[in-house]
Design brief:
Length: 145
């Protein structure tokens, strides 16, 4: 797992433990290199991103399920200007929608270890998890080859 510096103020979930978020299992799974999400125990709805309340039946009873760690690039763009605070030094970088294998989910993610001109629709990508300098964890996708 690599370490990446990211300003604290840019993270919507700065505290990833059980005392601070009901989706703490999502972060625990990322630490194990797994992408997970929630499935409603009452109606069976499967959702991305992970939820704490079911939009279908309003239940708060969920189980955690593992998602595929590979997919294909469905759409992509380059961040050339106006990067979020703290990411200015990374410009240019690629953002993409990844269609996860065997699911209906398209996950918005940074596409690492590649340049915009080397990307193509349908390009195979795989999950990469990484630790932030302050000990938190996050994910991105990188070329599968």
């Amino acid at each position: 797992m690599t370490t990446i510096v990211l300003p604290y103020m840019l993270d919507f979930y700065p505290l990833q433990d059980e005392d601070n978020t009901r989706i703490h299992q999502f972060y625990a799974s990322l630490r194990e290199g797994k992408l997970t999400t929630t499935k409603c125990k009452d109606c069976g709805g499967l959702f991305w991103p992970p939820r704490v309340a079911c939009p279908g039946c309003n239940s708060d009873q969920f189980e955690w399920v593992e998602l595929p760690d590979e997919g294909e690039l469905y759409a992509f763009t380059a961040m050339l200007l106006g990067a979020p605070l703290g990411m200015e030094k990374d410009v240019p970088f690629v953002l993409g929608m990844v269609q996860l294998d065997g699911t209906e989910f398209k996950v918005l993610s940074r596409i690492g270890n590649t340049k915009y001109e080397d990307c193509s629709l349908g390009m195979r990508v795989k999950l990469e998890t990484y630790e932030l300098e302050d000990g938190r964890v996050w994910f991105r996708f990188v070329p599968a080859d």
